[in-house]
Amino acid sequence: MVLIIPRFRKPDYKALLHHYYAHRGLHNIALGIPENSMKAFQRAIDNGFGMEMDVQLSRDGFPVVFHDATLTRMCGVEKRVDALTLKELKELTLAGTQERIPTFQEFLELVKGQVPLIIEIKMDKRDDRIPEAVNHLLKDYKGVYCIESFHPSALIWYKKNRPDVFRGQLCTNFNKENKNCSLSFFLLGKMLSNVASRPDFIAYNWIYRNDLSRKICCNLYHALSVGWTIRSQEEMDLCRKDFTLFIFENFIPEGEA
After folding, report:
1. 151 is catalytic
2. Active-site choice (18, 19, 27, 67)
3. pLDDT tens digits along 9-32
4. Does the annotation count 67 as an active-site position?
5. What is the pLDDT of residues 172-188, one digit of tens each?
6. Which CATH number fits domain 10-248: 3.40.630.10, 3.20.20.190, 3.40.50.2300, 3.40.47.10?
7. Choice among 19, 23, 27, 151 that is catalytic
8. What's this model's pTM, rounded to 2 decimal places?
């Protein structure tokens, strides 16, 4: 139990509360609004929702807003995001629309503090260039935000360099979700790296909300609980008592967050 202890002395996070967070923006491909697009972000702002979004680096080190490691699903290109330069990425379109991959700077200039943000740092392995690049653009940003990542090293970087930033461990039951029975994924799913990263919140796949490690972190040690990704009002109602913040997509939540 000691290994999963979060940080106790948290930065002030009250401004993050009482908001629903649109997963990769308020996207709707039927309306021509793809995920992680400027249209999806503007639609979330217009509807007063916070946003969750993803940041990774281009080959030449620019932070871009994109979820997958590869461009296959969203752009129809069989290459990794980090294999192309920013210029090359900007030539691609998203999901058959005219929307293009935003840079993180473009995203921040659009939001301008109008809604709170949950910023996911995407990394397959430890790469300090990514949190460094994200922080470079965030250090003078005036809006409300927190950072999260599946990879504990991103949180460790923030623990060392920006302890004032509210940080969270993204997690799920990897053994059940991905049918991956490796020891490393078991340990990651149980958040045993918390001893090094000391997260302030736990963002957990809502389906596995009864995981014992999550309950210990959030109920016993009082880490803020965040549920993802909730895809209907029925799912929202099922897990409302288990989480404080909610990341949603494909519907408009009812009631107070």
Report:
1. no
2. 67
3. 999 999 999 999 999 999 999 999
4. yes
5. 998 888 776 678 888 88
6. 3.20.20.190
7. 23
8. 0.97
